[in-house]
Specification:
The structure is a homodimer of 121-residue chains. Chain A is mainly beta and 121 residues long. Chain A is built from 1 helix and 8 strands; from the N terminus they run ββαββββββ. The relative contact order of chain A is 0.19. The mean pLDDT of chain A is 96. Chains A and B meet through strand 1, strand 2, strand 5 and strand 7 of A and strand 1, strand 2, strand 5 and strand 7 of B. Strand 7 of chain A pairs antiparallel with strand 5 of chain B, so a sheet runs across the interface.
Chain lengths: 121, 121
């Protein structure tokens, strides 16, 4: 069946959450938002493109930082209201320069930092 | 630092998205929503507990189906507006009886079904 981005379920802002997972190691790297046009741009270009809620603009991941996400596979969930992209991530995915945004764990009631920022090249 | 569920960033419905990932195989299983009380219940009980938007009620995953999610690790992202739980999943995570909700891929413009429902016991 041909895929049509407009058949996904977007929220009242026209957005759908998208989880990015490392296609090689399997780590969950980040979650951000797409609108229908960002979905189409991602599939067309093979470069993961989100919608920035703070900037209200397309956010071609890594366009300024170089920390691009090359699309490996694009998945839709059962309810069609969440996306999963498997990516080849260059450098850190997180704006804090860490590989993943999920670097804080909660263990025995305390927050624990699991990873440090990556060294700049 | 002691973790306080009220320090997370919830949306205007009081909800935060939570990604569930298989702690063993690394597959992303599903995404659902928690409120502050569901976060506290999950950490207290070790049983992943969401907030059902359709039923407007706590949803102790697997309580009726037996397809429970045992909490292995609880993670918070950099912006404190998304959660990741690593889980030990009994049976399928998806209501369609598939292991993961992300069983549909988009490849060369077409939707492709990647996995079939699991056989009932």
């Amino acid at each position: 069946m041909a895929f049509d981005p407009t058949t996904l379920k977007y929220d009242d802002r026209g957005l759908i959450p998208c989880i990015a997972q490392d296609a090689d190691g399997g780590d969950v790297l980040m979650m951000a938002w797409m609108n229908a046009e960002a979905v189409a741009m991602t599939l067309d270009s093979g470069r993961v493109t989100y919608w920035s809620r703070s900037r209200q603009a397309f956010w071609i991941k890594g366009e300024t930082s170089g920390h691009v996400q090359e699309l490996v596979d694009f998945r839709v969930d059962c309810d069609r209201d969440c996306l999963l992209v498997l990516v080849r991530q260059t450098g850190p995915a997180c704006h804090t320069n860490r590989r993943s945004c999920f670097y804080t764990a909660v263990r025995e009631g305390d927050e624990v930092e699991l990873m440090k920022p990556m060294a700049d090249k």
